[in-house]
Amino acid sequence: MSRIASCFAELKTQGRKALIPYITAGDPQPQATVELMHSLVEAGADLLELGVPFSDPMADGPAIQAACERALVHHVSLHDVLEMVAEFRKINNHTPVILMGYLNPVEIMGYKTFAQQADKVGVDGLLTVDLPPEESHDLVEELNQNGIDPIFLAAPTSTAERLEKIAHAGSGFLYYVSFKGVTGANALDVDSVAKKLNQIRQITPLPVGVGFGIRDAESAAQIARVADAVVVGSAIVKQIAAHANDMQKIKIEVTKLVGSMRAAMDAMTRQAA
Asked: Which of the following is catalytic: 60, 142, 149, 266?
């Protein structure tokens, strides 16, 4: 069983939901990333989503676009990101790490080389936001051979036919985008999310994580009521941007935010039990 599957199975026995924070590798500076990953786990993260900086992050809103720009100033590459995961694994060998980004860097490295290197350093999943399941066979095959979960996005506009393709190609969990648009927007309709998740669960037994629009403890708890996992990115990245020159302040504010989400999510699940 993969680290991701084990994590979700353990949380299910506890009656809890997964909290998956996102940060961009190398933001605000490369040496801060591994330390921040450990801080997120200490604050209550169950899985980590580590963004691979890219020059044209078309699915992301202004906050994560700016994070990529800050990382690319330091020339942070996919090779660097893999080294960061290897460094993280020297201390933490249990928290799943998912790389999130765009296909181009993986394609340049080569699917086979990437999958082998990612497995070697302890990457557990890969989400390439611009790779549709119809075109994913070659990469998915390499990932599967190296024990890495390919994770795909589903959207409010995804049809039942497309959801079946996404579920068939992916493993680990399915990432549901809570609304149409880019990361960092403010719209969040929990009832609509719940309705779509019911449809998804009729198609696949995979856990479903929900991201986009989750910005505080209240919204995290609302989504945790209906989803298996809560993914939060822009709200964290904004705190990093606000204190980019003060790593200690970043850790304080990010830990406070993630800790408040963890507490609210756990309180919600206790009330529902």
From this structure: 60
Q: Give CA–CA dist 97/88, Å, rounded.
A: 10
Q: Cα separation of 69 and 53, whole Å? A: 8
Which of 104, 101, 145 shows the shortest CA–CA distance to 126?
101
DSSP, residue by residue, 204-265: --S-EEEESS--SHHHHHHHHTT-SEEEE-HHHHHHHHHTTT-HHHHHHHHHHHHHHHHHHH
Domain boundaries, the chain: 3-272
CATH number for the domain formed by residue range(s) 3-272: 3.20.20.70
The conformation of residue 11, written as its DSSP 8-state character, comes to H
Active-site annotation holds for 228: no
The position carrying tokens 């909290």 is: 19
49 is catalytic: yes
- Catalytic site residue from 27, 49, 124, 149: 49
**Beta strand pairing status for 48-51 and 229-232?**
unpaired
pLDDT, one tens digit for every residue, the chain (273 residues): 899 999 999 999 999 999 999 999 999 999 999 999 999 999 999 999 999 999 887 777 889 999 999 999 999 999 999 999 999 999 999 999 999 999 999 999 999 999 999 999 999 999 999 999 999 999 999 999 999 999 999 999 999 999 999 999 999 999 999 865 444 445 678 888 999 999 999 999 999 999 988 999 999 999 999 999 999 999 999 999 999 989 999 999 999 999 999 999 999 888 876
Q: Which pTM was predicted?
A: 0.94
Residue 163: its H or E element = helix 160-169
Strand-strand pairing, 125-128 and 97-101: parallel
